Amino acid sequence: MTKKRKIPAFKNTSEEARFWETHSVTDYLEHMEEVDNIFALSPELSRTIRERSSKKAISLRLFRWEIDLAKRIAKSKKVPYQRLLREWIDAGIKQDMTRNM
């Protein structure tokens, strides 16, 4: 059984955007309001949705100190630490590809 989660109150849209970058809407469906309005997504949001849907979750074991340090660095950059880790992995892959091609 999934634990029901309540959508937090946000101070501003930036805070709300950061929250939804790291949380799944499906965990909060019971708190969503049904709407009849049809709206168009901005091209940037459409691209973000397409990119997120193509990601696959993996399990990765890191040392506690690696996670703690990544969290501290992410906090100083004001980004979620998972995003920072993805950026580091992406940069490492791209660097390795250019070096080995």
Describe the overall structure.
- The chain is mainly α.
- It folds into 2 domains: 1-53, no CATH class; 60-101.
- The protein is 53% helix and 0% strand.
- It is built from 4 helices and no strands.
- The chain has helices spanning 13-21, 43-53, 64-77, 81-100.
- α3 crosses α4 (81-100).
- The model has no long low-confidence stretch (mean pLDDT 87).
First and last CA, distance: 48 Å
Q: How is the biggest beta sheet arranged?
A: none
Instruction: Quickly count the helices.
Output: 4
Judging from the principal axes of the Cα atoms, what is the shape? Answer: extended
List the helices and strands in order: HHHH
Question: Which percent range fits the helix content?
Answer: 40-55%
What value does the average pLDDT take? 87
The number of distinct β-strands equals: 0
Tally of domains: 2
Poorly predicted tracts of residues: none
Measured by DSSP, the beta-strand proportion falls in: under 5%
Secondary structure class reads mainly alpha
What would you report as the Rg, rounded to the nearest angstrom?
A: 17 Å
